[in-house]
Design a protein that fits this description.
Blueprint (H helix, E strand, L loop, with lengths): L2 H11 L3 E5 L4 E6 L2 H9 L3 E7 L5 E9 L6 E6 L3 H10 L5
Antiparallel strand pairs: 1-2, 1-3, 3-4, 4-5
Helix pairs in contact: 1-3
């Protein structure tokens, strides 16, 4: 599974919504639909994802970039937060 899709699914599983910024505008706000979010990410070469918590405030951020134009977007950077570090370690098979 692609890292961006894995992260989106993880965020949604925690009850967060996802905003997508496509480098020009907020193309999607407050979504919990994986396919909808992925379509926005796949439509651009790079995107910023902002994860919104139950209180309406941001709980994290990630930068997704297309490496090579083949649709293999990857999470290039993210906010250091426990829930994001947990996702990163699980996705890459690291154990504590």
């Amino acid at each position: 599974m692609r890292s961006d899709k894995s992260l989106v699914k993880h965020a949604i599983s925690l009850g967060y919504t996802v905003n997508v910024f496509d480098t020009e505008e907020w193309s999607l706000m407050g979504s919990t639909k994986v396919n909808e979010i992925m379509a926005e990410i796949d439509g651009v070469g790079e995107a910023e994802l902002v994860f919104i918590g139950n209180d309406g405030g941001p709980v994290g951020w990630a930068y997704v970039i297309d490496h090579g134009g083949d649709g293999s977007e990857n999470v290039s950077d993210y906010t250091v937060k426990p829930w994001l570090d947990k996702w990163f370690n699980e996705f890459h098979g690291f154990t504590a």
